[in-house]
Amino acid sequence: MLKVNNVDVFYGKVQALFQVSFEANSDEIVSIIGANGAGKTTLMKTIVGVNTPACGTIEFEGKLISKMPTHKIIRERLVYVPEGREVFSALSVEENLEMGAYSLTLRKQELKEEMEKVYELFPRLKERCKQAAGSLSGGEQQMLAIARGLMTKPKLLLLDEHTAALDPATAEKVLEI
Fold this sequence. Notes:
The chain is of the alpha+beta class. The protein has helices spanning 40-47, 70-75, 93-100, 108-121, 123-127, 138-150, 168-176; strands at 2-11, 14-24, 55-60, 63-64, 78-81, 156-159. The longest helix has 14 residues, at 108-121.
């Protein structure tokens, strides 16, 4: 499903990734483990087109995506949920979820059905659907960031520090999802 082959990434003159290679197949969970500053986030941002590799290739479902812009990669339904609970703080929970589905061009009824699926997974978000995302607790914002990613109906979901700020029960639920 995903092939990363000999990828190097630089920030200016500083090299952040050195010849990174791995594969992730469908129905498989792959974890990237390393110390802070080891390049895990850089790798994920590179996979989704935020960073451009200096060399190497990235393929998703057999399609070369190494130089593809992020919005096109998301349309392929390869989705990245960044660390740090990045939500649209001024928008409501519901509006954040709608933003997650933006690239899908769903009809109103389909959007509602997708939202209900997400609310089943995270009932707390349904309780807070009209509340501004910025007023949620850290754990609730993390749930919202993951839920927004799920609204894209991803084929592959990249989660960066996905259990940060979550209580143990919710963290376990995220791992099940």
